[in-house]
Design brief:
mainly alpha; 3-stranded antiparallel sheet; about 45% helix; about 190 residues
């Protein structure tokens, strides 16, 4: 009986520490040190309405917007509950057909070939909110034409939204598509 009582007391103590104290401490620490990230890195439009997260991509198909990297999530594109790649190999017919269809869509919208791979291939998570600088630059003529804007203004906006390498040396320069499109919508 002593063993059961000790076990239950230890269980209760650990439940309080691990199930209450630790999560509250981590949440408070995150809110104090990283409030934006702890809140989901939410982005707002010019009216103050939440439009999405800087951490999860969104589908854009309207020619007046920059298009995102394709998503491989199941159910619907950029489904955060189904994060993951397609697991299709490089010789898989379905993958080759998807890449071919995406390339044809880009060509029909006026984008020059060769197309950067991040506009036709999904990321490993299927949720990547970024595209390469090159992928944004080749979309400028289409976006400028659809919005009746000077290509130079759109190009300047793209260059203003370039994010540098993480810590100065990890990865490549990139552009968050949702942030770029929000900046595009707020242009006068």
């Amino acid at each position: 009986m002593k063993t059961i009582t000790r076990t239950l007391k230890l269980f209760a103590i650990l439940l309080i520490i691990v199930g209450v104290v630790y999560p509250v401490a981590v949440t408070v620490f995150a809110q104090l040190i990283f409030p934006k990230e702890a809140g989901g890195s939410l982005l707002h439009d010019s009216g103050g309405n939440i439009t999405g997260s800087a951490l999860i991509g969104q589908p854009f198909s309207d020619p007046k917007y920059f298009w995102s990297r394709p998503s491989a999530t199941s159910g619907y594109p950029y489904n955060p509950m189904a994060s993951g790649g397609s697991n299709l190999g490089p010789t898989n017919k379905d993958l080759l057909d998807q890449i071919s269809n995406r390339t044809e869509l880009l060509k029909s919208s006026g984008i020059q070939i060769p197309v950067p791979s991040d506009l036709v291939e999904a990321s490993a998570s299927g949720l990547d909110p970024h595209i390469s600088v090159q992928s944004a630059l080749i979309q400028i003529p289409r976006v400028a034409r659809a919005r009746n804007l000077d290509e130079g203004r759109v190009s300047n906006l793209v260059l203003e939204n370039v994010e540098n390498r993480q810590f100065g040396f990890l990865g490549e320069q990139r552009i968050n598509v949702l942030e770029l499109n929000l900046a595009l919508d707020s242009m006068k």
